[in-house]
Protein: Alkylhydroperoxidase/carboxymuconolactone decarboxylase family protein
Amino acid sequence: MSDHLTRFRQFRERMNSRIMEVGPLETKRFFALDTRAYEGGTLDVPTKELLGLVASLVLRCDDCVTYHLIRCKEEGLSDVELREALHIGLVVGGSIVIPHLRRANATLDDIAAERVPEA
Structure:
């Protein structure tokens, strides 16, 4: 498993737990709203994750990009579909998105390496 992905997952889980422990009610409600926003509805979950991915790339949030790439792969989206969505994010966000696009592609490579069965 990629060190980057392992560290990301462990830190996210640990800090989300900590925030739920010490955060005010409004923060807990926001986290719940965020979780519910990505549940299936009129739009299916993979589509919502793609929307989250593109928005995260345009907003230049590497943690969010990583999270949505993981979720998109869990939802069965192909690398081709993800790279097309990342291209849309680049077009919308412009050249300032390029460093984040690089990291997104590195993350996709890490996810792919993690899924390779060991011999």
Summary: Residues 3-115 form a domain with the AhpD-like fold (CATH 1.20.1290.10).
